[in-house]
What we know:
alpha+beta, 189 residues, 33% helix, 6-stranded antiparallel β-sheet, two-stranded antiparallel sheet, 7 helices
Amino acid sequence: MRPLCWFPLYLLCTLGAPTALADDFDAPDWRRYEHASIDRGFTRAGTAWRVAQLGRSPAHSPAETSRIIARAHELIGTPYRWGGQSEKDGFDCSGLLVYLYRSIANRKLPRTTHSMIAQRHNEVSRDELKPGDAVFFNHNGEGGTSHVGLYIGGDRFIHAPSTGKSIRIDSLDNSYWKRSYTTARRFSG
């Protein structure tokens, strides 16, 4: 017998969210429910598959992406600090993205540039960039990827450049960044 508290989840998984609530619906973290429902024997045909399919992170809305970018704009001028990931302490390049996604979207990103770029399933080609994507660079077109910024559209990105500098906007069309660009990842869904 199914516990009554799981009945709303069962309906949501089998029928989907009601369209009247679709705009206001904050999807739960389905990974939490995937194993719990299977562990409790909820294997009705289709239900376990539906929960497993929804186990991936829900896509962020355009409004959420806009809030991430707006917050990044508010941080322009904040000093770079190696290892920093707070407004009080300053930010390094990956710390800035980790902070933005955690504080606005409640989403945990890998802490280092290397770990972020290892997320190959989130890879985005240069011509498919959307605001909110993470753009990656190497030093002057040489060596491994060591820098990341937040793409904001119009071939521009916000980033924490290096020691002695502060968060700013740069252009992907700038000769240095064009030569140094390596790839992009989409962490927004």
